[in-house]
Write a structure and sequence with these properties.
Layout: E1 2-13, E2 19-26, H1 30-37, H2 44-55, E3 56-59, H3 67-71, H4 75-90, E4 93-99, E5 108-114, E6 120-121, E7 130-133, H5 136-140, E8 150-153, H6 158-170, H7 172-183, E9 184-187, H8 195-199, H9 203-216, E10 219-220, E11 223-227, E12 234-238, H10 241-267, H11 271-275, H12 279-298
Antiparallel strand pairs: 1-2, 2-3, 4-5, 6-10, 7-8, 8-9, 11-12
C-alpha cells in the first residue's frame, strides 16, 4: 500500500549530479515494525537504512529505492522520512511522559504535540559538496595549510551514522573527529586530508568548518518545549525521532505478536500473510472479528 508523497528538505544527489527530492512512501507493515522493534543500539542506523529502503517506494525517478541510496540520504532527510513513517503508523499526535529536569522539582510532565508541527528547515543552498574559505584569523592558527584556506566537504549522511554508531556510544568527541575526516574532501593543499590531519586542526579552524556544515545542512527540530505543572518552569526536552520511534515499536512488539496469533488462530492465515499487513489493516480485521465473536456469543 502506497502512502502519501512529499518533498525532502535536503535531497539526494545521484552519480550524474541530479538532485532528487520528491518521494512516495509505503505504509509500514508488520515486517518493518518487527525489524525496528528488535534494533539494538549499534544496529539502529543500519536497520533504519533497511526500513527506509523498504518504505520509500520512489525517490524522484528511482524506484525501488535500494539500500545504497537510502544510506546516502542526508541525516535530516532520514529523520524527516522517519517522522512521516511514524505519522503513517501511529498517527499525527505524539504523547510523551517526561521528568522535570530541575533538581529541586523532578515532577512528572506530560507533553503532547503533533508530528506535522515539528519544525523542519530547508538548507540555504543545495549542492553535492560545498566549498568554503577559512577566515584569516583561523588560517593563522593552521600553519600546516601553508596559507591555503579552501575547504571542500559534503554533509553527513546515513553511511556516516552506520559507520560511527558504535564509536559514538563510547567516545563522542572521537566520533565527531572521525565524522569530520569522513566529510572533508579537501583541506587546503590536502586532497583528501587524512584523519590525523583533520584531528590536528586548530580549534578555530575546526569550529569554522563545523559551523558552516551546520549552516548548510537541512534540520529537523530535535527538541520540544515543555512546561512543568509542578514548578511552572519551561524546559527543552530532547526529541530524537529515531529513538522515539524505535521505543514506540519496541513497547508495542508484544502487541504485534499477539495480533499475529489472534488472526492466525481465527482466520488460519500464515504468519507471512499477516506480517505483510499494515497496522491499520490488522486492527481493522481484529475489530471486525471481535464484533463477529461478540454477536456469536450473544446468540443474536
Amino acid at each position: 500500500m502506497t502512502g502519501p508523497a512529499g518533498v525532502l528538505p535536503g535531497g539526494y544527489w545521484d552519480q550524474d549530479g541530479r538532485l532528487h527530492r520528491e518521494f512516495e512512501l509505503a505504509v509500514l507493515t508488520g515486517r518493518e515494525e518487527e525489524l525496528l522493534a528488535q534494533a539494538g543500539r549499534s544496529a539502529r542506523a543500519t536497520l533504519v537504512t533497511e526500513v527506509l529502503s523498504r518504505c520509500v517506494r520512489r525517490l524522484g525517478p528511482i524506484s525501488p529505492v535500494p539500500p545504497e541510496v537510502a544510506r546516502r540520504l542526508l541525516v535530516a532527510d532520514r529523520q524527516y522520512l522517519l517522522l512521516q513513517i511514524r505519522r503513517l503508523t501511529f498517527g499525527d499526535p505524539v504523547h510523551a511522559d517526561l521528568v522535570c529536569p530541575w533538581p529541586d522539582c523532578g515532577a512528572q510532565v506530560s507533553v503532547d504535540f503533533a508530528v506535522s508541527d515539528v519544525p523542519v528547515e530547508e538548507p540555504p543552498h543545495r549542492a553535492a559538496a560545498h566549498t568554503m574559505t577559512l577566515s584569516a584569523a583561523a588560517l593563522a592558527t593552521a600553519p600546516e595549510l601553508d596559507g591555503d584556506g579552501e575547504v571542500r566537504f559534503r554533509l553527513p549522511d546515513g553511511s556516516d551514522q552506520e559507520a560511527l554508531s558504535d564509536l559514538l556510544a563510547l567516545n563522542e568527541a572521537e566520533a565527531l573527529t572521525v565524522l569530520l575526516a569522513r566529510c572533508v574532501e579537501r583541506l587546503g593543499p590536502f586532497r583528501p586530508p587524512d584523519r590525523e590531519r583533520v584531528s590536528g586542526l586548530s580549534a578555530p579552524a575546526r569550529a569554522e568548518i563545523e559551523e558552516e556544515m551546520r549552516r548548510l545542512a537541512p534540520t529537523v527540530e530535535q527538541s520540544v518545549a515543555a512546561v512543568c505543572v509542578g514548578c511552572g518552569r519551561t524546559f527543552l526536552a530532547p526529541f530524537d525521532v529515531q529513538r522515539f520511534l524505535l521505543g514506540e515499536l519496541r513497547t508495542d512488539s508484544r502487541s504485534l505478536y499477539e495480533e499475529v496469533h489472534y488472526l492466525a488462530y481465527h482466520y488460519h492465515w500464515s504468519e507471512r500473510e499477516i506480517m505483510e499487513l499494515t497496522r491499520s489493516k490488522r486492527h481493522t480485521y481484529i475489530d471486525v472479528l471481535a464484533e463477529a465473536i461478540e454477536v456469536l456469543n450473544s446468540g443474536a
